[in-house]
């Protein structure tokens, strides 16, 4: 009879360990499909909680630069940080050894302070290292309050399997995040170098990017499309790197030959960016950027494209470009107020600018106004080189208006 019962228990264990393996495999598959670190940490915490039949789990990540552990998933709270070496999780991060505490309040390593503050009661506690490819501890699992008793050796084994695949997913997500940061800082640096060449358009690329983003959102762009728009706006005048200083910084009207030369910057933008190996899903950034001076009536440059050949991103950058040329001060004009800016831009809708984009500009007016206020400090100052005297230019304003709009740089 007791033999029979033991057999039955054994069979149950086999079945449950089979189920557990299935679960781990399923979680591993899901982990591998997530490349965003925050989403990954949430998923890992949920998976650990259900897999070990615990009440809650927190995943800490070791920040190599700061010698700290951080987490964003603990109790739905904002980010918490503490040094490696402090507390149980900090110790596990340092030693790489598992700490399994059946009764927290009977263990001197446990700090009851957080419980006291939150009113929570910790009973059992399993703290487990996540080891990366180079044998370094890259994170720590902390699982709290196993249902029906302390954490077992089997729980430790289960967590070991989960931690192994979690480590791969975390390192992968970290690598992707680093590449993204590198990429982002690279294109921001390129934009800054362009704006730095010409005092008159200081901060221009940055402002055009922010305005384009506001308009793009208003038009329903999100995710990758918004990312592409932002990159293209940042780099739209990159071709100016090839324009000689004497044209770029000429503090007066350009003659036709000079203007034709200046125009080449849009084509150069496309040419130069074609050399950059863009990430696969960002391949149309050079196209968007190089079309920012094309017009709806086909009279734009460099290609004189018809409206149906101008990509939406380029139409948005074109409007953002004009918007900044008008709202920011230039050597021949002061900063125009919003109503005057819109009046001029409305006059350009249809032949130069896309009416659908202009409609979005009108709808997004409060956000655009707030963005102008936020970016005012990046405007060129009257005393800056190439800015000349705004008063001096005041008499020529009306004549220059259309020009400013037509040549937003
Ligand atoms: Fe521009
Ligand atoms: Fe331009």
Q: What is the straight-line distance between the termini?
A: 91 Å
Strand content: 5-15%
CATH topology of the largest domain: Hypothetical protein af1432
The CATH class of the largest domain is identified as: Mainly Alpha
Bound molecules: fe (ii) ion
Order of helices and strands: HHEEEHEHEEHHHHHHHHHHHH
Largest sheet: 6 strands, antiparallel
Task: Return Rg in Å.
Answer: 30 Å
Describe the global form: elongated
Number of helices: 16
Molecular structure report:
This protein has 409 residues and is α+β, with helices and mostly antiparallel strands. It has two domains: 174 residues, GAF domain (Beta-Lactamase, 2-Layer Sandwich), CATH 3.30.450.40; 210 residues, Orthogonal Bundle (Hypothetical protein af1432), CATH 1.10.3210.10. The protein has 16 helices and six strands. It has a six-stranded antiparallel sheet with strand order 3-2-1-6-5-4, with helices on both faces. Helix 6 crosses helix 11. It is elongated, with a radius of gyration of 30 Å. 35% of the residues are buried. One fe (ii) ion binds next to helix 6.
